[in-house]
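Quick note —
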Amino acid sequence: MEHSFLIANSLYKIGAQIGKCISGIDIEVELINGSFQAIGDKLAEKRFDGFIFFIQRMSDEAIAFVAEIRGKYKDMKIYPLIFTGSEYVRQDLIRAGASLCFIMPYMPPVLSGELLCHFYNNRNYKIIPQIVYFLNSKGFDSSFQGFYPLCIAISMLLNSPDKLNGSITDFYRELADFINSKYENVERNLRTIIRKAFKKGIVINNSKPLFRMKNKELLLLLTEEYKGISKNPF
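Predicted structure written out below.
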């Protein structure tokens, strides 16, 4: 099943960058700029699973808007992005119904990783935040197509290292079932990751060039390296 996110009132093209980062697994993204009324009308047009919106200046109206959206859409994930360091403001938004509140500035890939970790955790996904940061530190961009399936694949291998002892196709099917996709898409997305990583000059543990590497080798190498640097992967 595909999920939908609405990103509202983006500033400095940050919303578009976040949209690029979070789309890909099973998420489609729409962007809108306008008043609270216009945003509310858009939310009423179709079912959105997630709602990200920028608040440049806090006001009672903004808090009331969050409370109104929460009242109408009980299951929607609401993520305000605020440009103030006030913990009191953040707590007011949480009390009004925000699922998680981000205080800017935030690098879009990092914010997107934390947001998706939160969004999927309640849907039995296991995108471990440390895996996102690990891959980012290796040079894997969160906007790469296939980035988050890769995160999930690594977390699955941490939990069950023998999953790749059998057919790689069986692993693709299990991963595809987990993210409501097709196994062909999983295989293609991982190949895309390898191609983009090679073009970016990423090297994994002095291994052979990425363009010669198969998906299974990539998964095993990244999982082993992550285990080696993480004292507590879970």
